[in-house]
Design goal:
99 residues; single chain; mainly alpha
């Protein structure tokens, strides 16, 4: 899965590149926190590319958002209550969209 040879069925991508992409896509499909993070990241990246957000502000947001995402994943995995999971997810959504 992670060798340096060209991956079968991929156009010039190595097994390492294809495997990493597969693992990332699996995380996004399975965890709501990753979905929220990816969506917010795209939003803030677009602002950065348009010039509405400075590089330093974008970098600071990225670091804080990743920390918030990881903390939310840890909290969700430690609880079995569906209502609590929903609260944690909603809280993460608000944190990721506040700059």
């Amino acid at each position: 899965m992670y060798c340096e040879r060209t991956a079968p069925g991929e156009d010039g991508r190595t097994c390492r590149e294809a495997g990493a992409r597969t693992v990332f896509e699996k995380k996004i499909q399975e965890e709501e926190a990753w979905k929220l993070y990816k969506r917010a990241y795209k939003k803030y990246y677009a602002r950065f590319m348009k010039g509405n957000l400075s590089r330093d502000d974008f970098k600071a947001w990225t670091e804080q958002a990743a920390a918030d995402r990881d903390a939310a994943i840890e909290r969700v995995s430690s609880t079995s209550d569906a209502e609590e999971r929903a609260k944690i997810t909603e809280q993460l959504r608000k944190q990721l969209n506040d700059l």
